[in-house]
Specification:
The complex is a heterodimer of chains A (419) and B (84). Chain A contains 13 helices and 23 strands. By secondary structure, chain A is α/β, with parallel strands linked by helices.
Chain lengths: 419, 84
């Protein structure tokens, strides 16, 4: 199959807030841009809308930016295209999801690949009706039906509230939002929020006022036979069952470092390492937003602008103060929503860790490391190629489950055959 | 979500709202799971963003398509790959 070849002066991977801010600045400087995103709709996990969800003021801001830049003559936007291989630091191979490959190159590359959810297995987490909390939000944005259904969101962090707002707008009945962080930790967080963010949080709470929110409460197992019927919860003293039709589990986010790893960028503490210019360890390769460390939309926006400025050899001084404030927020976020150790012990011996090959925690524990476990149990060798179970073994067993190879996601063989 | 379109799920015609994902179309058509796991457990879309592959189905003759990443189209033929 012949590969389409595209070139530009700059290339941006990811169409969330960071990518969007960068692309707008690059286009303003009259630089031609190749913009790649793996989703059918641009906006990233946070700003992407859908037929039944407009997503509030923040999403409108994203939609407005997108409208401004979408039709720009210097922009080539490739939606629904995934990076599957890196040919060099300035040349990537994409798959359009339909068996066609596209080869893209540019002298300057920005990785704005965002984050994905941290999943912590517990008994029953593979039942239909159990999803990631952000995953359920993403599904609902895509039209997933939840009208009138009883939903519990459990885990930690602001994503639970954002997901709750989307679900409620789609007609779900929110039975409970269970936040594992203690009430004391949350009170301290709210007090130290900058005014604008405090107002945003207050508005969200107001919107959700009919939904019970409980701090210091976490899930122990999902219950049900063919699908989820209830969740067993605890506050550390007693346990109780909460009936539900859907359960969203969200334990925070992890930077998406896969493309950076494939290129050979240095990874530090699970995030793409960048310098003050947001350049990675490789010349001409930059990174911005959640992939450099979880910090939310303000950090993503300012880093997107900074990276674009650096790529354009512009002065970054005027952006530094905003960046410092965003990073301070990041630290408060991490401290407030630090996960309690009990959450890493929810999985039992027979609980599946690898959903593709049905490998249990007990089966994995018989092996010393990721490599040996892969060879002996096929953990991480199924359809998802370790994207879900790899990070879980890092969290639960302390394994080093890196070592990515191309293709980054399942690709038809036709993409690899010579023209 | 005013507009609807017609597509085929396992050879049966189904009307769904335009603009939704294939995963959502299956759920709206009453499929409570998208595949069966190796040990025979029912599974349904989990991560919602293209990583877990639990939502994979065949679309227009092409296997291993992630239902959460593809939008519905008129006349689309969706086949759930494994017995449900």
């Amino acid at each position: 199959m012949s590969a389409r070849q595209l070139q530009a002066e700059a290339m941006v991977v990811g169409a969330g807030p960071a990518g969007m801010a960068a692309v707008e600045r690059l286009l303003t400087a009259k630089v031609s841009v190749l913009w790649v995103d793996n989703q059918a709709r641009a906006g990233g996990q946070i700003w992407r809308g859908g037929p039944q969800v407009t997503g509030g003021a923040l999403a409108r801001r994203g939609a407005d930016t997108l409208r401004r830049i979408e039709g720009h003559a210097e922009l080539t936007l490739l939606r629904g295209h995934e990076v599957i291989a890196a040919l060099s630091t300035h040349e990537l191979l994409l798959h359009d999801g339909l068996g066609n490959r596209v080869q893209v190159s540019a002298p300057r590359l920005l990785l704005a690949t965002g984050a994905s959810e941290r999943h912590l297995p517990m008994p029953g987490w593979t039942l239909p009706g159990v999803h990631g909390a952000g995953g359920l939000q993403a599904l609902v944005k895509g039209g997933w039906p939840l009208e009138g259904q009883r939903v519990v969101l459990a885990g930690s962090g602001p994503l639970l509230l954002a997901s709750a707002a989307t679900l409620q707008a789609a007609g779900a009945r929110l039975e409970l939002i269970a936040e594992q962080a203690s009430r004391t930790a949350l009170a301290g967080f709210a007090l130290r929020l900058p005014l604008r963010q405090a107002a945003q949080a207050a508005a969200m709470r107001l919107q959700l006022r009919a939904s019970p929110y409980r701090a210091g409460c976490w899930p122990l197992r999902a219950l049900g036979r063919e699908r989820v019927q209830a969740v067993l919860l605890t506050d550390g003293r007693r346990q109780w069952e909460q009936p539900c039709d859907a359960l969203g589990l969200g334990f925070g986010l992890r930077p998406n470092t896969e493309v950076a790893e494939l290129l050979g960028c240095r990874i530090d503490a699970g995030a793409v390492a960048v310098n003050g210019q947001l350049q990675t360890s490789l010349a001409g390769v930059y990174a911005a937003g959640e992939c450099t460390g979880i910090g939310g939309v303000d950090k993503a926006l300012v880093e997107g602008e900074m990276a674009a400025a650096a790529m354009l050899a512009q002065d970054l001084t005027s952006l530094r103060a905003r960046h410092r404030a965003a990073l301070a927020f990041t630290q408060r976020l991490a401290a407030t929503f630090a996960l309690r150790p009990e959450l890493f012990k929810l999985a039992e011996a027979q609980t599946l860790v690898c959903r593709c090959e049905d490998v249990s925690l007990g089966a994995l524990k018989r092996h010393p490391d990721w490599r040996e476990a892969k060879l002996q149990t096929r953990c991480g060798m199924g359809a998802c190629q370790g994207r879900i179970c790899g990070p879980i073994t890092e969290d639960l067993l302390g394994w080093q489950a890196r070592g990515l190879r191309d293709p980054l996601s399942p690709t038809p063989l036709s993409c690899w055959l010579p023209d | 979500m005013d507009q609807e379109l017609e597509l085929m799920i396992n050879d049966r015609p189904q009307r769904v709202p335009a603009g939704i994902t294939v995963a959502a179309a299956l759920a709206r058509a009453g499929f409570s799971s998208s595949r069966q796991s190796h040990s025979g457990e029912p599974r349904a879309p989990f991560c919602g963003m293209g990583l877990c592959q639990e939502c994979r189905v065949m679309i227009d003759g092409q296997g291993h398509q992630r239902g959460c990443m593809r939008l519905v189209a008129p006349g689309m033929r969706i086949v759930t790959q494994e017995p449900i």
